[in-house]
Amino acid sequence: MSVVARRAAAVALRQLSHLFVGRELTDEQLVELTDVVTTWIQRADEQPSRVREFPADRIRAWQEGVALPESARPTGFPDSVVTGDSNPMGLAARQWNEGEVAYAEATFDRAFEGAPGRGHGGILAALLDETMGRIPAIFGSLAFTGRLEISYRAPTPLYRPIMAKAWCTRREGRKFHIHAEVRDGDTLVAEATALFIAVDLSKFLPSS
Q1: What's in the GO CC field (predicted)?
Q2: Could you give the CA distance from residue 92 to residue 89 in angstroms, rounded to a whole number?
Q3: Whole-angstrom Cα distance, residue 21 to residue 13?
Q4: Which of 24, 89, 134, 199 could pair with 102 as two cysteines, CB 3.0-4.6 Å apart?
Q5: Cα-atom radius of gyration of the chain, to the nearest Å?
Q6: Which fold would CATH assign to domain 56-204?
Q7: Rounded CA gap, 134 and 132, in Å?
């Protein structure tokens, strides 16, 4: 299976989803679309199931203390609903690290609208959670969210990029205390604090 082909299909489906929400389609167009999609639902359902796993060689290298380049660190999936470019239902945010700080940039299109003209707060929470989740990986750990608290300061805009930024404020054993913020230019949209709990890396190895 081609990664490029899968990504291209996801991009097309994602664009269609936003257009479906943002455009007035005729009844005839809706019937035609339903017929086409139903056919593809049946075809896709006949295919083998996919299993998402971290590459075992990367996990084992990390366990052994082998330094991995940024691109090889197991920090996410291409199918992630927040950052995966191969998820047709996702936000497709762009993520990167600068030193010990994690960043993400995303644009909320029509399908992620909450109140009219505003991005959905729950989608913004997912963006914050995913960005904060990169922090333990910077320090050589993988962790799950234990607690996430968000203060919304301004409306989340549609159709233009917003920037998330996260950093660690304190570590206590397996506990990572993390702070994050989202900005629309100079405007603070939201800020958050979270507790992430590191887990045994072996739990991410493929099942035998």
Answers
A1: mitochondrial inner membrane; mitochondrial intermembrane space; ruffle membrane
A2: 9
A3: 13
A4: 134
A5: 19
A6: Thiol Ester Dehydrase; Chain A (3.10.129)
A7: 5
Burial of 49 (0-12, 13-18, 19+ CB in 10 A): exposed
Q: What is the structure's pLDDT at 79?
A: 86
Is residue 198 within 8 A of residue 143, CB to CB? The reply is yes
Sequence-ordered alpha helix ranges (H) in 46-182 = 56-63, 121-132, 134-138
- Cβ neighbors of 199 (< 8 A, separation 6 or more) are 142, 143, 144, 174
Q: Calculate ∠ Cα 107-152-112, nearest 5°.
A: 30
Place of tokens 């050589």: 140
Measured CA to CA, the distance from residue 111 to residue 120 in angstroms comes to: 9
Could you say which residues of the chain have pLDDT below 70? 1, 54-76, 205-208
Other Cβ atoms closer than 10 A to 150: 17
Dihedral through CA 84, CA 183, CA 131, CA 19, nearest 10? -20
Q: Which residues contact 175 (CB under 8 A, 6 or more apart)?
A: 146, 195, 196, 197, 198
- Report d(CA 165, CA 54) in Å as an integer: 25
Residue 8: the pLDDT is 96
* CA-closest candidate to residue 182, choices 171, 191, 172, 174: 191
